[in-house]
Amino acid sequence: MNGRSEPGSWSPLGHEVLRQVLDGTPAGVGILDPQLRYVYVNPALARMNGIPAEAHVGRTITEVLPDLDDAGEEAMQQVLADGKSREVPSSGHTRAPSGLTRRYWQGAYHRLSGPDGTAVGLVGITLEVSTSRHEQHELERARERLALLDRAATLIGTTLEMEATCSELARFLVPLLADIASVDVLPPEGTASHSRGQLRLRRAAMAALPNLRDEVTIFGEPGQYLDYQEGSTIPRCLQSGRPVLEDLCGDGTVARSTRGRERIAAYRAVGIHSALVVPLTARGHPIGTVTMVRGGESPGFTDRDVEIAQDVVGRAAISLDNARRYTHEHGITLELQRALMSEPGSPHPTVEAAFRYQPAGSSALVGGDWYDTVRLSFGRTLLAMGDVMGHGVEASVDMSQYRSMLRFVASADLPPHRILRRLDTLISETESGRPASCLLALVDPTRGKCAYSSAGHLPPALIRPDGSVELIEVPVGPPLGTGHGGYEIVSGRCGRGDVLLLYTDGLVERRGEDIDVSLERLARLRLHPDGDLGGLVDRILSLLVSEPAEDDIAVLAARIVR
To answer: How many CB atoms lie within 10 A of CB 53?
Structure first.
């Protein structure tokens, strides 16, 4: 049956051919006026809704089908308002008989406009996409699984610290899948993992329900190395690369699965009856295992639990492998950086110098911060502080190369701005050279003067004998390696007892803070420049760096002693 509008009312169906098309299509088609009242309903939509077509005319969707969600009606209101066509899913029940717990539709809505461009209604085309009850159940399970994995992705692997990632994984699994969860990892490369028929792993993390936290310490605490007999559950899991599910109700099974018969009493005291061990494997390499156990009134593990555990642990293994790789590279870079920074040149005996290098927290790779002192003729000393753009091994290697370049150029006894100009040219001609900031200070104790020049670096600070801090204004040229040159030189007084402070941006900069505010924090300090110079540098670090730094920090302090 066809729903028809009343005589004299607006009708978009004046063409009989169009009516035949709409009446014959298997898709549900409805035309509504600007008040979202039905004007026309084709036979397919009438069957879908379980109401004769003429019973729709003059009534709204809510009046016809009160058990639908509001998604379709909201989309129609938006289409009428802005004229943009939309496709939206909706769900609920119509008056048509159905054995489904819920029905689903996909609707497309388009605005109908009159000759003057105003909205005179809209057309909606609806297709049912409902599935069988079994398919709906599987679809809901798939949605739940995806939601769980999405949640795991946001909670596991938030840092590049392996211990933190293991803890996040264990806490995520309790109480979601287990009463107790532990993460054991293979020792670092070069450390023996097998000894006297045993497999040695390190307990990286452990989590338990609140009422079990005191009891589980007997099974091993984070940081401990644990030995597992060959043939027990964890070695078998690592060897096969597949999950191992065990019923621990029998004492014999407990003895074979754990690290010995002495654990039987502990398992019984906690009430453990089921265990699931899942391998931690990433990029084809084993990392360790995750053990989940249930006890007391908790049900045993099901096949679905195993599937979910594999998904979660598999995602976490990638984060753990990234953390392990990062930790390895970070360690190499840090050792390289420390080795390169450990032997700055010796200043002239008239100048005392102290140095500090503090790497950033483990959330960032080691950078290319560097410092140096070069002894020159006539009792002068050149102080240098630089920062190579980027992080990692490459930045550290470039830092070492630039430092060597500086020593070579400085040997020509040039003023600071000409040294920067030569360095800029040399670095810009290097194929893989990274830009770098640099600040030079030429200290001349005999004349009581210092000359400064800057290539994109923060200004030096002068700590006077009265403890006040003065930021020295130095014209800032472009970073080294750009090939633009344009460096200037400024001079100032510096006498006996003055302490000249050079530093990289990690000392003062804070995320989201204007650099002028950061520098003002340094200028407001009141210090005691006499006494041990290294102690003074440590004092400055303690006053300005209260939390783990987001970037590397290098500090050089120099004092004229005679």
So the answer is: 21
Residue type, 308: I
Q: How far apart are CA 168 and CA 289, in angstroms?
A: 15
Inter-residue contact 500 to 383 (CB < 8 Å): yes
Pairwise CA distance, residues 526 & 531, whole Å: 15
pLDDT in tens, 394-439: 777 788 788 889 999 998 989 999 999 999 999 988 877 789 999 9
- Beta carbons of 368 and 388 less than 8 angstroms apart: yes
Could you give phi then psi for residue 176, rounded to 5 degrees? -55, -50
What are φ and ψ of residue 357, in 5° steps?
-130, 125
Longest dimension (CA), the chain: 110
d(CA 305, CA 141): 12
C-alpha dihedral, 198 to 200 to 203 to 204, nearest 10°: -150
- Give the C-alpha separation, 280 to 408, whole Å: 51
Mean pLDDT of the chain: 84
Alpha carbon distance 482, 3 (integer Å): 75
Q: Which whole-number Å values give the CA distances from 451 to 46, 65, 219, 421, 473, in the listed order?
A: 90, 84, 65, 15, 12
Helices and strands (H and E) in the chain: how many? 14, 23
Cβ–Cβ under 8 Å, residues 20 and 70: no
Chain-centroid distance, C-alpha 41: 52
Q: Which residue, among 101, 93, 88, 30, has the nearest Cα to 60 in the 3D structure?
A: 30
User: Which residue carries 């298997």 as its tokens?
Assistant: 26
**Strand, coil or helix: what is 174?**
coil
Between the alpha carbon of residue 234 and those of residues 108, 162, 291, 503, 532, the distances in Å are 55, 20, 8, 51, 55
Q: Quote the CA–CA distance of 503 and 556 in Å, as a whole number.
A: 6
The tens digit of pLDDT for each residue in 24-75 reads 888 999 999 999 999 999 999 999 999 999 999 999 988 998 888 877 888 8
- Element at 556 (helix H, strand E): strand 553-560
